[in-house]
Each structure stands twice: as C-alpha cells, then as structure tokens.
Amino acid sequence: MALYVDIEKRLGSFDLNMKFEMDNEVLALLGASGSGKSMTLKCIAGIERPDRGRIVLDDHVLFDSSQHINVKPQKRHVGYLFQQYALFPNMSVYQNIACGIKGAVKRGGSKGVDKDRMIRDIIDMMHLNGLEEKKPRQISGGEQQRVALARILVNSPDALLLDEPFAALDASLRKNLVRETYKLMKDYGKSVIFVTHDQKEAFRLSESVALLDAGVITRIGKRDEIFEKVMVENFRIRGEAE
Q1: Structural domains in the chain?
Q2: The whole model's pTM is what?
Q3: Using one digit for the tens of pLDDT, what is the confidence trace for 22-46?
Q4: What sign results for the dihedral spanned by CA atoms 149, 100, 84, 10?
C-alpha cells in the first residue's frame, strides 16, 4: 500500500466521505463538478483538514484525527499541481523551478548538492531548454504547465496530485500534452492521482479509476474493468428507456 485515504469532511450541506487505497500507480478521480474530487486532493496535500479519518503515504501518517496528527503541507512531501499552475509571474522559468528545489536540498543535505545541475536536468527532462530566462506570460499554456510540473518534480515528491491538469489549455494543445503527461506519470513510478471530469482523459491517462458522485466513490478499480462496467450499464439503461 503506497497511499491510504479514509476521511470525512462536511462543507455546509455537502459531505465528503472518501475511502480508498492505491499502490504506486496512476489513479483518476472521475466525476462531475462538485463531486469532491479537488477537495480530496486538498485533504491529501494538507491544504484542507478533514473532520475525521486517516491518511498514510508510504507508511508515514500524514493525518490521523484519533491521534491528533496533522502534518503541515510543506512537510508532507506531496506535489500538487493547481489548475492555474500558480507560477510566479515576475520570476523567470529557471527561478520558478528553483523555488521547488528547497525540499530536495533539505532532504539530501546541502553538502555536495549541485542545485544548478538539478534544475538543468529537470529542464532537459521537461523539454524547456531555451526558455530559462522567459517569464510565464512569455510562454504558451503548455509550456507553463511543464514549468509547473518541473517545479514539483525537482523536489522528488512521494506522491503527485494533478487537479484537472488540462483545464486551462485550449483543445489544440491538449492532445499532445495528454500523451506527454501520460508518459511522465508512468515513468514517475510513485502514487499519482489526477482529477478530471473527462472520461476520455481518464481512459487515456489512468491505470485505475475511481468514480465519484456527491462526495463518495461509487466504483473503483482497474481502468478497463471500470469502463467496461460503465458501458454495459449505460447500454442497459438506454435499452430499458427505449
């Protein structure tokens, strides 16, 4: 078990009640707006505090209401990609990525760490060469996404959380970026959760899928099994309606 989540959180009349566990794989949280997808990510990252429950990542307890454990977000070692990427507008691409390296340096100790080499390596990996001195407003939406991911990955997080990573992009950019992001997530080799309301994105990017509705998981399992069940059920419902 790489990641275990069993949490409850009440938001006005909305109740989030999430329970799942996953290995080092790519899991899609698929559901309509307001189903609790983004709130689940925020609870895992420590941005929001559940009312009750437990979150464990690689045997490290991040949250446990019964033991009064609530690890600060900056100490959870979880990478979170926001929908709008949250790049610093007055910093260059290089400087934005450098902001993410602090955790990696602290973990490995400052002695012998070549920060510039770490940044250059991630720039190469994300195909950002030649953009180092440009500001976010001077590069495309797809390039901004790669910079935001580079800033996260340079810190080598234990889990990667992507909140609708293609929502801010136009349709012409999505096709290539979906392919690039899939390879990146597969090669990453750790727990990756991404949020989407697009069934095609979930099918193309995930290994497992959790279907969310009104704050709960209605189905979870391997991608092909989930989509086969959904297709069979939709076909049955259409047949009954006819």
Answers
A1: 1-77+198-242 (3.40.50.300)
A2: 0.85
A3: 999 999 999 998 999 999 999 999 9
A4: positive
